[in-house]
Fold this sequence. Notes:
Keywords: Heme biosynthesis, Lyase, Magnesium, Metal-binding, Porphyrin biosynthesis. It holds the Pfam family ALAD. Pathway: Porphyrin-containing compound metabolism; protoporphyrin-IX biosynthesis; coproporphyrinogen-III from 5-aminolevulinate: step 1/4. The structure is a single chain. This protein has one domain (17-321): TIM Barrel (Alpha-Beta Barrel), CATH 3.20.20.70. Strands 1-4-5-6-7-8-9-10 form an eight-stranded parallel β-barrel, surrounded by nine helices. Strand 6 (156-159), helix 6 and strand 7 form a beta-alpha-beta unit. Helix content is 42%, strand content 16%. Helix 3 (50-63) packs across helix 4, helix 5 crosses helix 6 (166-176) and helix 9 packs across helix 10 (251-261). The chain has helices at 2-5, 8-13, 50-63, 92-103, 136-152, 166-176, 197-203, 206-209, 225-237, 251-261, 271-282, 288-301, 312-321; strands at 24-31, 36-38, 46-48, 67-73, 108-113, 156-159, 183-190, 241-245, 265-269, 306-309. By secondary structure, it is of the alpha/beta class. It is globular, with a radius of gyration of 19 Å. The structure holds the ligand NCc1[nH]cc(CCC(=O)O)c1CC(=O)O and magnesium ion. Ligand PBG binds next to helix 7.
Amino acid sequence: MRRMRRDEFSRRLMREHTLTTDDLIYPVFVHERDGREAVPSMPGVDRLSIEELLRVAEQASELRVPALTLFGVPDVDKKTADGTVAWAEDGIVQRAVRALKQRFPELGVITDVALDPYTTHGQDGLLDEDGYILNDATVEVLTRQALSHAQAGADVVAPSDMMDGRIGAIRVALEDAGLPNTRILAYSAKYASAFYGPFRSAVGSAAALGKGNKFTYQMDPANSDEALRETGLDIDEGADMVMVKPGLPYLDILRRVKDAFGMPTFVYQVSGEYAMLKAAAANGWLDERATALEALLAFKRAGADGILTYFALDAARWLREG
Length: 322
Ligand SMILES: NCc1[nH]cc(CCC(=O)O)c1CC(=O)O
Ligand SMILES: [Mg+2]
């Protein structure tokens, strides 16, 4: 076996998978304040004003990263129990989408559909008196949120909430609104993961959520067959792309989903995965570039067509440098 590993030329010839800039989606946090605000648990990641977002979009375009995915960070005083600002025409994400599509029409714009940044309780949906997350009432407002993003010009809406039936409802609403080409990237197999911690600080839902959890709607990390049932439903309801989340601890799920359905399949290298690599690198314990590129390549090997990663711009630069 070692003959083929002996030289760089033969290693290159037998290489089965490659990571390219075409595989990358860059998640960004957009706030209603001026300038940039660092997210302490995610070194290198800032919350951005719309003006700063346009600067980042310019870099992404220049690096040929295909798409950004937007997360809104509303001012705390705009949060309500029912998260109505999530579908406001002049909401932060809606304004950001319009600004992006006007300046960089070629850059793909994906929006996150879920209520958690906008609710006082930090849950992705609406609650009943007992604090249980209501399914159908939530689907109704998520549909409004998705529609408001699409009407602002989003190319792709990405529901990350894990309510049942939301993909079908959003697909019908898009058709009815005369937006048949808006794509849906479904967070299909999204696990109730502790690796989302830094993200919740970034969007400001951590404090609201407190000791709360999302176990009644996000998947149990112990399950694998269930991921196939979830993904199959989203495809039947009209998803264009499916996603597995988190990434590295769930490569087995990614492989199963890709093999079972052959769909455009995405994976999210989540905030906690990013934070681990950054922290180890900052301590001099790991080589940041080598470990980040290795993790991203592992997603490709496991079947991903694309990767949502906070390393997207750095990875694009590293790949360009060769
Ligand atoms: N709708 C919430 C949402 N959308 C994306 C992430 C996590 C992303 C990350 O950790 O990088 C989460 C967190 C959660 O479900 O609590
Ligand atoms: Mg589902």
